Amino acid sequence: MIPAADLDRALRREAELIGEVRAALAAQRAAVAADDIERVELSVQAVGRTLLVLDEARRRRAAIATLASGREVGSLAELEAAWDGPMPLSLREACAAVRREAEAAASEARVNQAVLRGALDAADAYLQHLFTAADPTPVYQPATRRTEPVARLVDRTA
């Protein structure tokens, strides 16, 4: 039998961490909208740190479930299948919370991808406009050679 209390804590911690990723993604989008490069960088770092902790939390949850059930349990579906008998309500709710947070975070990530792609396209268009001259002729013209003889004045009265 999988220890329900340990598993419940592990699942709720996962949901909490996924919520932190979602919040960091929303902060990133706000920073892009405010054109605040420093806040964008901080949000990228926050997402990266939280994803590392989340990966460790998932491994911990999988280890708890695997040790207790005696078979490899990685996903939430595998967890539900490995449970002997009906899963307790608290665990079903914890699994549902993980799914809800994961779906919300995935939605935030999709929105951020579109926003960041739009910001990059706008920056590229601005740079293209900035460095494209209105008059495409070169600034320095090639030297022209005279084809007529040059007249010389010579004073021979010396």
From the N-terminal CA to the C-terminal CA, the straight-line distance is 124 Å
Structural class: mainly alpha
- Morphology call: rod-shaped
Q: Topology as H/E string?
A: HHHH
Can you tell me the residue ranges where pLDDT is under 50 for at least 5 consecutive residues? Answer: none
Q: What is the alpha-carbon Rg in Å?
A: 33 Å
Tell me, rounded to a whole number, the average pLDDT.
84
- Fraction in helix: over 70%
Per DSSP, the total helix count is 4
**How many strands, which pairing sense, and closed or not: the largest β-sheet?**
none
Q: Beta-strand level of the residues, as a percent range?
A: under 5%
Description:
The protein is mostly helical and 158 residues long. 72% of the residues lie in helices and 0% in strands. The protein has 4 helices and no strands. The chain has helices spanning 4-33, 37-69, 76-82, 89-131. The longest helix has 43 residues, at 89-131. The chain is rod-shaped, with a radius of gyration of 33 Å. The N and C termini lie far apart (124 Å).
